[in-house]
């Protein structure tokens, strides 16, 4: 029988969205447990307790963690020996439709002006698909359903080179303080530094994919991650903005070179439910969930 | 700070007893309403059209639930709160005209809402953002739905709730706003951190 790779990718994408929507990745769960243990504000602790209860209930009842099941975002990395992959956009759109019905997911995708909701989480340029290439005979597929409460707090700053690291710190801390409880803290923060305006925002979101307990391989970036996280967690915003020491569960930076006259910085704010799931589809049709 | 168990409809006398930082568990009826529902409700008012539902004494829940239909009946899968500040410019008028007693959402609300809460006797509570399955477990039944043409998240869902909570009161009807007070402390801390 001929291998139906398109069908395998579609089924895998549905499963990736299911896993992402219902169960948090281990690094995120570990960070929430740690926050609960370390939180000293009574109000903050009560919020973390409710979050942990909710995570257990969602898993037990096989339901999405949050009613805002997000807009569907995929990160696809295709190997040069994987073979034809022109079917990917249509296949991931089909998977999104199926996942919306089967899991189920809340239909969130609407026309930006008329606000018409087709009811299936798909429409012009949605689901959002990011592509990368690599060497190999496989395709990696990451699903990152992202809610609006946190995404609405994301921002771009086109800093001047003279603003430097201090400017980056001020931008991040200002943003988190003004966001308060709106993005459902404790948040996960992705910071994209450099590139141009679009690249900084893309990198900020991509930074959410890295496990929270894994620092950037370059020392000075890793140090800035730790310093920014320390500052954010010293503000006192706390869980749900009700006060406390845990405002963010983690902060990851990704960077790119930029123009000598520029310092673009993007921040992508993610709620405590940093939902993501990953699978690898091999050329022979076998699938690994990672 | 006390824990109160309340039943809807909640009259003004009862609402006035609730204080900031109290914890509420509410049974009775909650109606969801967010951006589009607020906009349409205020349009109805402007054009003198009759509202399909009466909010008086009930819970207005800032929530776009995930619901499913099985055997012709709607049921709630997940129903946590949405960010309330998006409704800030509309809420004062909503409170004045439709008189919900308790507004539930997340992230707190601003000055205009706090003033309306004081003037007309209402409170605002935070429910833990994202705790959607926990919330759904306190929803016994979908009693009805209006304005479904706005889409599932934006429609008015009428929900039978049972000990819905814990709800943290962050705006009471005496002019207190917990988030405002905390924001002042956090702003001061921020200035200290960035100048260190």
Overview of the structural elements:
The complex is a heterodimer of chains A (290) and B (196). With 290 residues, chain A is α+β, with helices and mostly antiparallel strands. Chain A folds into 2 domains: 115 residues; 123 residues. Chain A is 38% helix and 21% strand. Chain A contains 8 helices and 9 strands. In chain A, the strands form 2 sheets. A 5-stranded mixed beta sheet of chain A has the order 2-1-3-8-9, covered by helices on one side. A 4-stranded mixed beta sheet of chain A has the order 4-7-5-6. In chain A, strand 1, helix 4 and strand 2 form a beta-alpha-beta unit. Chain A is globular and about 60 Å long. Chain B has 196 residues and is an alpha/beta fold. Chain B has one domain: Fe-S hydro-lyase, tartrate dehydratase beta-type, catalytic domain (fumarase, Alpha-Beta Barrel). In chain B, 31% of the residues lie in helices and 31% in strands. Chain B is built from 6 helices and 9 strands; from the N terminus they run βαβαβββαβαβαββα. In chain B, the strands form 2 sheets. In chain B, strands 2-3-6-7-9 form a 5-stranded mixed beta barrel. In chain B, strand 4 and strand 5 form a beta hairpin. The model of chain B has no long low-confidence stretch (mean pLDDT 96). At the A-B interface, helix 3 and helix 6 of A face helix 5, strand 9 and helix 6 of B.
């Amino acid at each position: 029988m001929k291998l139906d790779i398109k069908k395998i990718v579609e089924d895998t994408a549905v499963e990736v969205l299911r896993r992402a929507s219902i169960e948090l990745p281990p690094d995120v769960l570990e960070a929430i447990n740690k926050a609960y243990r370390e939180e000293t504000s009574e109000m903050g602790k009560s919020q973390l307790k409710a979050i942990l209860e909710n995570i257990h209930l969602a898993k037990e009842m096989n339901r999405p963690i949050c009613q805002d099941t997000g807009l569907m975002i995929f990160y696809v990395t295709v190997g040069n020996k994987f073979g034809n992959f022109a079917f990917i956009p249509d296949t991931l759109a089909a998977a999104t439709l199926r996942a919306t019905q089967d899991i189920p997911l809340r239909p969130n995708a609407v026309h930006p002006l008329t606000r018409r909701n087709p009811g299936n989480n798909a429409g012009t340029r949605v689901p959002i698909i990011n592509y990368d290439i690599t060497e190999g005979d496989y395709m990696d597929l990451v699903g990152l359903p992202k809610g609006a409460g946190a995404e609405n707090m994301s921002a771009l700053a086109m800093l001047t080179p003279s603003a430097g690291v201090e400017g980056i710190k001020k931008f991040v801390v200002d943003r988190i303080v003004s966001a308060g409880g709106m993005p459902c803290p404790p948040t996960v923060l992705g910071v994209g530094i450099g590139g141009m305006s679009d690249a900084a925002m893309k990198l900020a979101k991509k930074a959410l994919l890295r496990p929270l307990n894994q620092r950037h391989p370059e020392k000075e970036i890793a140090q800035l991650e730790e310093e920014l996280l320390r500052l954010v967690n010293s503000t006192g915003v706390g869980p749900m903005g009700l006060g406390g020491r845990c405002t963010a569960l983690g902060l990851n930076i990704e960077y790119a070179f930029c123009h000598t006259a520029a310092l673009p910085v993007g921040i992508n704010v993610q709620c405590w439910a940093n939902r993501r799931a990953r699978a690898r589809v091999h050329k022979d049709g076998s699938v690994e969930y990672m | 700070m006390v824990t109160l168990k309340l039943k809807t409809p909640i009259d003004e006398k009862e609402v006035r007893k609730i204080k900031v930082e109290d914890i509420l568990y509410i049974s009775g009826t909650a109606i969801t309403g967010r951006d589009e529902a607020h906009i349409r409700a205020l349009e109805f008012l402007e054009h003198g059209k009759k509202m399909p539902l009466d909010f008086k004494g009930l819970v207005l829940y800032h929530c776009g639930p995930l619901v499913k239909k099985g055997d012709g009946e709607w049921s709630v899968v997940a129903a946590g709160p949405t960010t309330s500040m998006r409704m800030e410019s509309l809420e004062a008028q909503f409170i004045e005209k439709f008189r919900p007693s308790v507004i539930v959402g997340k992230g707190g609300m601003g000055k205009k809402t706090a003033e309306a809460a004081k003037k007309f006797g209402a409170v605002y509570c935070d429910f833990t953002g994202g705790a959607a399955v926990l919330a759904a477990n306190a929803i016994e039944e979908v009693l009805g739905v209006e304005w479904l043409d706005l889409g599932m998240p934006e429609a008015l869902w009428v929900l039978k709730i049972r000990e819905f909570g814990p709800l943290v009161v962050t705006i009471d009807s005496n002019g207190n706003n917990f988030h405002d007070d905390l924001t002042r402390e956090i702003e001061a801390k921020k200035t200290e951190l960035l100048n260190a």
